[in-house]
Amino acid sequence: MAKRKVVDKQVSILKFCRTGSGHEETLKKEVTVIDLVSDNEQESLFVCDSEEELPYQEERSTQFACPVCEVDIAHLSLDDRTVHVEACLVNPNTKKVLYRRIKTTGVVEQTKKKCDRRPRPPIPDEKILSFENHTIAVDAFCYAPHPAISVYLLTHFHSDHYGGLTKNWDHGSVIIVTPITRNLLVYKFGVNPDLLLSVDYNQTIEVPHTDLKITCLDANHCPGSGIFVIESPGLRYLHCGDCRINKPMLESLMQIGRFHKIYLDTTYLNPLYNFPKQEIVIDELCKLLQSKMETMQFSQQRVIDFFVDRKPQKFLIVIGTYLIGKERLAIKLAEALQTKIYCNEEKKNVLSQFGWPNLDNLLDTHNPESCQIHLAALPKLNKDYLAEQLKTYSRHFKAAIGIRPTGWSVRYGKPVPSLDAMVAAESPEMVYAAISKHFDRFREDNKARVLQIPYSEHSSYRELFYFANLLEYDELVATVSPHNQDEQLAMLREFKNYDRLCIENF
Ligand SMILES: [Zn+2]
Ligand SMILES: [Zn+2]
Description:
Blueprint: E1 6-19, E2 24-36, H1 56-60, H2 78-90, H3 95-104, E3 128-130, E4 135-138, E5 151-153, H4 159-162, E6 174-177, H5 179-189, E7 196-198, E8 203-206, E9 213-218, E10 226-231, E11 236-239, H6 247-256, E12 259-264, H7 278-301, H8 303-308, E13 315-321, H9 327-337, E14 341-342, H10 345-351, H11 357-362, E15 363-364, E16 373-377, H12 383-392, E17 399-406, H13 428-440, E18 448-454, H14 461-470, E19 473-478, H15 485-497
Parallel strand pairs: 4-5, 5-6, 6-7, 11-12, 12-19, 13-16, 13-17, 14-15, 14-16, 17-18
Antiparallel strand pairs: 1-2, 3-4, 8-9, 9-10, 10-11
Helix pairs in contact: 7-9, 7-13, 14-15
The chain binds zinc ion (2 copies).
């Protein structure tokens, strides 16, 4: 078994901004990023490792701040750090749970901001889109009403975007949403459907009582997430909400032409975030699990096994999810392994809001033992949970594999050395090799293990490079860490000034 070592410690100074009691203060904090490099220097895409082999002692001695909420998470295990940061990125509500865990290990709990117990702040500039005659607000429901704004846009159903939106919300006359987001708002919060104007992917609508037109494209983030082209007679803006850039998206946007302003999701605008494309990861994971299944079925067919070994031969796959998100992975895996997906009633009700017949047909809420894929809440997906599941279904499964889809992970290591290193197309073979290496490290007696799979719902550094380079625009606005705008814009300018990339290589 390969022995891992910490090859390099990169110390990066990240600037953070904290909103204190009415004034803004920029803090500098030193964050140590551990770069794990595999024995094989060629394997630079990402490094997966099993928990036991990681050098905990060395890391425990350093401070490790969550890039989103700044809480010191050095006391958490590598897996828990990843879960924490993912939770911070997607759903601030889950922070509560994780903060409590941090508190028990000696870190002071942060004071939670409560949207409605203090006077609401005004809508920040980067959430206001001004045209010649009209102004609209994007993902801005948690702020004070704005005298000139009655049109609101909600890019997708994640709480850091819809926050503040309740069934009594009355700051505007219309909220532009996608059909899936509309269904979820009505189903989960009882928002008045008359307030919601939906625009489907690749559809253009006129915004009532304005001279604005809005076109929606798939954001490739969570179900129902959109990126929106908003046009007045003289201006064309693009708001990307949260998005994972992919080739169809880039091609559609290049066809539309020049944008006056693009509001971009820059969550992973950092050379450290070098993770492979989602579709490659899904395909290669399916291939791997399929081949493992075939091996098992073949061994089951041997006559001697039939008499000697009556033990179950299948493994259970438990996929960690949030309220919504990661469904594509579950669907593709279920299709590849020709099995159904088990989840509870409430989860099924949420998923049925998507109106995806292929997903509806795969879901089963009654026969967990006959479904090889189960959905579970991501924060509870660990070895103990898997062991418990395995005990419950011991007559049906011989092992349990937890799939933790994750974007940010200290395990993916190696920052991108230069822009040149990102030009060439990514290699599916390298992704397969890395996942397979991780899988093969499971010992036979390890019946319950968690496999960490790079499955980000935000764009990688490389994808942002292609986006900023290929599209035509006058101005870019970073919607993540707006206090850090200058640094981010400098990076994006560097992308733009690089020799024009070739979309075929994307
Ligand atoms: Zn955090
Ligand atoms: Zn989101």
